[in-house]
From TrEMBL, chain A:
Name of the protein this chain belongs to: Nucleoside ABC transporter membrane protein
Location(s), subcellular: Cell membrane
Membrane topology, record value: Multi-pass membrane protein
Pfam family for this entry, one: BPD_transp_2
Automatic annotation (TrEMBL), chain B:
This protein's name: Nucleoside ABC transporter ATP-binding protein
Annotated ranges, domain ABC transporter: 7-240, 251-493
Record SUPFAM superfamilies: P-loop containing nucleoside triphosphate hydrolases
CDD domains, A to Z: ABC_Carb_Monos_I, ABC_Carb_Monos_II
Organism field: Desulfofustis glycolicus DSM 9705
GO molecular function, one term: ATP hydrolysis activity
Source superkingdom: Bacteria
InterPro entries reported in the protein's UniProt record: AAA+_ATPase, ABC_carbohydrate_import_ATPase, ABC_transporter-like_ATP-bd, ABC_transporter-like_CS, P-loop_NTPase
Amino acid sequence: MNYEILIPLLAAAVQSGTPILYATLGEIFTERTGILNLGVEGIMIVGALSGFLVAKITGNPAVAFFAAGLAGAVAASLHGIVCIIFQGNQVVSGLALTILGVGFANYIGAAYVGQAAPGFDPLPIPLLSQIPGLGPIFFRQDLLVYLTYLIPPLMWLFLYQTRYGLSLRAAGENPAAAIAAGVNVVACRFVGVLVGGFFIGLGGAYLSLAYTHLWTNNLTGGRGWIAVALVIFAFWRPSRAIFGAYLFGGVMALQLRLQASGTQIPSSLLLMLPYALTIGVLVLASWRRGGTDEPAALGRNIEPVD
Amino acid sequence: MTETPVIRLEGISKFFGSVRANHDISLELNRGRVVALLGENGAGKSTLMSILAGQLQPDQGVIYHHGEPVIFTSTEQAIVAGIGMVYQHFKLVEAMTVAENVYLGQSPTAWLKSREMTRVVNELAESYGMQVRPEALISDLSMGEKQQVEILKLLLRQSSILIFDEPTAVLTPHEAYNLFATMRRMRAAGKAIVFISHKLEEVMAIADDIAILKRGEVIDIMPADRVGSTAELAERMVGREVLLQVERQSVEPRQLVLTVENLQDDFLHDIDLEVRQGEILGLIGVAGNGQKPLVQTICGLRRPRSGTITLLGLEWERFFSRHRWDKSLSYIPEERQGLATCRGLDLLENFLLTTRSGFTVGPWLPRGEAGLKAQRLVEEFDIRPPDLNNLAWQLSGGNLQKLVLAREFHRKPRLIVAEQPTQGLDIAAAEDVWNLLLKAREQAGILLVTGDLNEALALSDRLAVMFGGRILATFAGGDRDMVERIPQMMAGLTQEEMT
């Protein structure tokens, strides 16, 4: 594979990895507070549809992008209400949210299938985009991609260097200890669910506003599930999520290119690649459990004080 | 004492359904004084302290804080009022550092300044005679160090009333000694301290006032200097003469039920021991010196890597390859909740965990018949409340332990491995357990693993001292010279370091 093919492929990897990255970061944030949200796929598609509709109505992609985040937070709040207030089972609630979100978005979006909406276009950064190799890969993307370069370090700073981050992480590691220390664990977990849902919604909006600029049924196509798996691969660390997301983006882009190049491999096999990789990654991640930052109380509800 | 008490409880009562947990309790806490709360399991100590810490609301009665009546509806309010609790089960985040835990929920600034945090934690620890590294992860710490972190949390938020819920239950003797030194410094610094304990010597050593609780009521309250001896205190507590020295008749030791020869692995070195039917071998040592792996190996939870173990005449592999429910090995583990019982199952189901083979008819397990038997045992062993439908977690530690013993003795074991059987039990319950073990000795050989010297001396026919994965010596319980050297042996070779 020569240089002219490799660079566009890597650039495409970054682009198709970006929606997964948003969703993974959102899910990491949520899980850090101890709430397992398997509704990522549903929240993402609700975000994608909301972004698309708001862009179509207002014509303003920035407003649409923000609205998609809010829609994601609203969708995620259902999960928060079920699990945090009513102590529901987190796995079941998350799965239900996925089914609900996908069904809802496909139903509302049915009238708009194939229609286009204004979105984000590549916006090369002066100077940086001229760096050979790195420039075309990382700095000839759209604004939303640049935004993801900032989120992991900011999220790390928040989680590890502020007292709020300390409280949020404590809520995910040992809620009883956090309560004993006077931390409002219910609030922490709600913040985790809402902020996480916001980022997941943004990931969905990237698909409809930058990746495709149009609406189709099942636009997310399982990317939400990949994000759930990537959280484990990333050991719950924002920085590692970047590598995972771009790895998957790369496989998705490669698979598209192979199909376009008219290879002999059946396209259904190629379409399986990212998901096969997901399984591989999970096996690998569970092999070396050593360095993971998995929250100790992940998926466990806060027991009410009697 | 003309000063207003920091906290005055007046007429506190608390009911759980029809159960009276606290009844008309009045108590004063003063600056610079240690109040010891003494009482049996289920006497209402924990309930009373939960009320003070804002976790429970009293049904009747008033709490006065510096003379002002207050109502704590949440732990936060109690924290703000300066009440801090060192829980028996630590409330720490294992994956975080000491400094992060200390500052959790009480960082004055939005940004965490790790250098500042380290400095403050170090200073606090030093001024109260504690040694703990602020950068260390909680999961790497010993129980004693974790407890220090709990104390540091309270010191940082300048709590003026500190409650210690059975703080020495998880500590080695040396760690307990350090804890008392820290508590004395706190007392000198003018803090009011509540000390909950079962151990009479500790209460005598540290307390200024002693309050005895029984069945939810304060039956006696007195300054510590008016109590003559631990025996007197024990008498006041249980309301009758306590046989700290249990009566034992010697039983003729018979055939070997357990031999361990040359057992070796990463934690164990050259272990040799034997137990005969009719005797109790007391294995004494500070926790963490190889007792756990040894017990696990003997009880079939760990495969012996080298050396031979023979149980009831059968080699280890053969013994554990066939299951026999009665006249066999009974293991009474330290973890009553977890290893010995399932917290979410009721008493009958927990009873059947190891005895089910005695009741099965073909594929069926008739609950009725088993229930009758279990109910009789519950009455015989005085397990409270005597209701088989209760779940394991609803029982106090002492009653749960009695259930485990009732179950295991029902199996008529020939070999009993009892691990810290009276840890966390009050004197009356411990005495019951001791007498049960002595009685069981007629039919079985008993390996008693304990860290309590009094218990080992009271029960054992022979003693073995364990340190650093080795058995340092084995001798008869009547060998006075050796018995006197046990404390030094338990401390291993660290004697020079301690001076």
